[in-house]
Amino acid sequence: MLKPLGNRVILEMIEEESKTASGIVLPNAAKEKTYFGKVIAVGQGQRLDDGTLLSPEVKVGDTVVYEKFAGNPVTYDGADYLVIAADDLVAVVE
Amino acid sequence: MLKPLGNRVILEMIEEESKTASGIVLPNAAKEKTYFGKVIAVGQGQRLDDGTLLSPEVKVGDTVVYEKFAGNPVTYDGADYLVIAADDLVAVVE
Amino acid sequence: MLKPLGNRVILEMIEEESKTASGIVLPNAAKEKTYFGKVIAVGQGQRLDDGTLLSPEVKVGDTVVYEKFAGNPVTYDGADYLVIAADDLVAVVE
Amino acid sequence: MLKPLGNRVILEMIEEESKTASGIVLPNAAKEKTYFGKVIAVGQGQRLDDGTLLSPEVKVGDTVVYEKFAGNPVTYDGADYLVIAADDLVAVVE
Amino acid sequence: MLKPLGNRVILEMIEEESKTASGIVLPNAAKEKTYFGKVIAVGQGQRLDDGTLLSPEVKVGDTVVYEKFAGNPVTYDGADYLVIAADDLVAVVE
Amino acid sequence: MLKPLGNRVILEMIEEESKTASGIVLPNAAKEKTYFGKVIAVGQGQRLDDGTLLSPEVKVGDTVVYEKFAGNPVTYDGADYLVIAADDLVAVVE
Amino acid sequence: MLKPLGNRVILEMIEEESKTASGIVLPNAAKEKTYFGKVIAVGQGQRLDDGTLLSPEVKVGDTVVYEKFAGNPVTYDGADYLVIAADDLVAVVE
Question: Is B29 on the interface with C (CB under 8 A)?
Answer without folding.
Answer: no
